[in-house]
């Protein structure tokens, strides 16, 4: 009878652990990125009264006679199913759709999390503002190139930094010059060229018809722009079917007096122009841009961070890293929505989101807890009844002991 009491005590302990885990799951029902736990039971060793025996003589086999000695907690699984995504509209909030973890670091140790409630810290680092841990990834070089084969480091988004200007070097003029126009007719387009100092110069290119399928062109600067002048001229001719034939005069050369590199030579491409009958209409596009400051950024599904500058230019700033594990359920909870690698989880495989089985990044959203309240409340009833039943075994065993004691009065 004492065995039944100790078995029931083990049942009380096991169901208390089950209730503890259920309580923790319910407490974290609104915790970002939380993954619920599940308690599994297994029986303890059994006491053997009679061993098993094989058939012999005219008798068949005899089964063993054993009595169990209770229950114990076999393990607590972490359920790594996808949580629902909740839109926040916040630029630095990120959720993982699929498998994987954001990589965080305190400068000496790496942690892993599904909690993407990040922010840009004082030094420009992308951080978790609750813990101060830095998001890991790869930063782009000055040319906007990211090398993901190198070791990860703190992701930096340098808001407010200024980019250098890029002087114009090429221009493309497209459109049509009216083949039916009279000799002396004109048509023009304006090119905005940028010098090495980032100063814009407006250059008007005027086409004047000189004969059948032939036009002269001349470039002039804005009269108010006293720092630039040009004497560039040229010609363009078309074939009898209106297609481009040849041109002269490129590049357009600006003489500058503002301290910028002079002359500013811009190679103009005219071979996309046509000479059909119809209204003359021209359009010019020039490369180069003025200096600008980083005002905002966007993050793509692959974790690529693209900076947007005040001059309208964009440039790749960095790449967020994502880790995956052979056995994610083997990770160790560290608190603060963090996990650490263990011998059961294996080492982290760090790479680009959306590759190698890793999930993608959804910005402006957070992954909510995957706790299912209906399941938890049902499990709570099961735990309560299991605890109650084991308590009843103890009281019944006590009554049997009392009856045994009362046999001798």
- Strand content of the residues, in percent? 35-45%
Provide the structure class.
Answer: mainly beta
Bin the helical content: 10-25%
Oligomer: single chain
CATH domain class name of the largest domain = Mainly Beta
- How large is the count of helical segments? 2
Number of strands: 33
Under the CATH scheme, which architecture of the largest domain would be assigned? Sandwich
Overall number of domains: 3
Mean pLDDT: 93
The best one-word shape is rod-shaped
> Which ranges are low-confidence, i.e. pLDDT below 50, for 5 or more consecutive residues?
none
- Per the CATH scheme, the topology name of the largest domain is Tick-borne Encephalitis virus Glycoprotein, domain 1
Q: Radius of gyration, rounded?
A: 38 Å
Could you state the CATH homologous superfamily of the largest domain?
Flagellar hook protein FlgE
Main sheet summary? 10 strands, antiparallel
Distance between the termini: 21 Å
Give a written overview of the molecule.
Helix 1 packs antiparallel against helix 2. The protein folds into three domains: 2-50 and 63-80 and 370-405, no CATH class; 90-151 and 315-367, no CATH class; 170-286, Flagellar hook protein FlgE (Tick-borne Encephalitis virus Glycoprotein, domain 1). The protein starts with a helix and ends with a helix. The chain contains two helices and 33 strands. Strand 7 and strand 8 form a beta hairpin. The longest helix has 33 residues, at 373-405. It has helices at residues 2-27, 373-405; strands spanning 37-43, 46-50, 65-68, 71-78, 85-87, 94-97, 101-105, 110-113, 119-120, 126-127, 134-139, 153-154, 162-163, 170-176, 186-194, 200-211, 214-221, 228-229, 233-238, 244-247, 252-256, 264-269, 273-274, 281-286, 292-299, 304-309, 314-320, 322-324, 332-335, 338-340, 349-351, 360-363, 365-367.
């Amino acid at each position: 009878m004492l065995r039944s009491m100790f078995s029931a005590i083990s049942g009380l302990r096991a169901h208390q652990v089950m209730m503890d885990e259920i309580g923790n799951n319910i407490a974290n029902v609104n915790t970002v990125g939380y993954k619920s736990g599940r308690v599994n039971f297994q029986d303890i060793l059994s006491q053997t009264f009679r061993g098993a025996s094989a058939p012999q003589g005219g008798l068949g086999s005899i089964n063993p006679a054993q009595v169990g000695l209770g229950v114990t907690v076999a393990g607590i699984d972490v359920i790594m199913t996808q949580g629902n995504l909740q839109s926040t509209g916040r630029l630095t909030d990120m959720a993982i759709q699929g498998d994987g973890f954001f990589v965080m670091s305190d400068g000496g140790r790496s942690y892993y999390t599904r909690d993407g409630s990040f922010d840009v810290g004082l030094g420009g680092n992308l951080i978790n503002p609750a813990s101060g841990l830095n998001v890991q990834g790869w930063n782009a070089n000055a040319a906007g190139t990211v090398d993901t084969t190198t070791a990860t480091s703190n992701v930096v988004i340098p808001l407010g930094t200024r980019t250098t200007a890029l002087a114009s070097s090429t221009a493309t003029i497209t459109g049509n010059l009216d083949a039916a126009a009279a000799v002396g007719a004109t048509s023009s387009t304006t090119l905005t060229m940028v010098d090495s100092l980032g100063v814009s110069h407006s250059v008007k290119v005027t086409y004047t018809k000189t004969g059948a399928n032939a036009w002269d062109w001349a470039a002039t600067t804005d009269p108010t722009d006293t720092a630039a002048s040009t004497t560039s001229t040229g010609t363009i001719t078309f074939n009898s079917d209106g297609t481009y034939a040849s041109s002269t005069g490129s590049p357009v050369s600006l003489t500058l007096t503002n301290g910028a590199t002079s002359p500013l030579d811009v190679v103009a491409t005219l071979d996309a122009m046509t000479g059909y009958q119809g209204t003359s209409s021209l359009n010019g596009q020039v490369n180069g841009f003025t200096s600008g400051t980083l005002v905002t950024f966007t993050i793509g599904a692959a974790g690529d961070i693209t900076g947007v500058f005040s001059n309208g230019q964009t440039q790749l700033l960095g790449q967020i890293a994502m880790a995956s594990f052979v056995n994610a359920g083997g990770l160790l909870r560290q608190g603060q929505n963090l996990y650490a690698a263990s011998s059961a989880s294996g080492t982290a495989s760090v790479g680009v989101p959306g590759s190698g089985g890793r999930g993608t990044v959804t910005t402006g959203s957070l992954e909510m807890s995957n706790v299912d309240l209906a399941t938890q409340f049902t499990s709570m009833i099961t735990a309560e009844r299991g605890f109650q039943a084991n308590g009843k075994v103890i009281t019944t065993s006590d009554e049997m002991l009392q009856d045994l004691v009362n046999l001798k009065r």
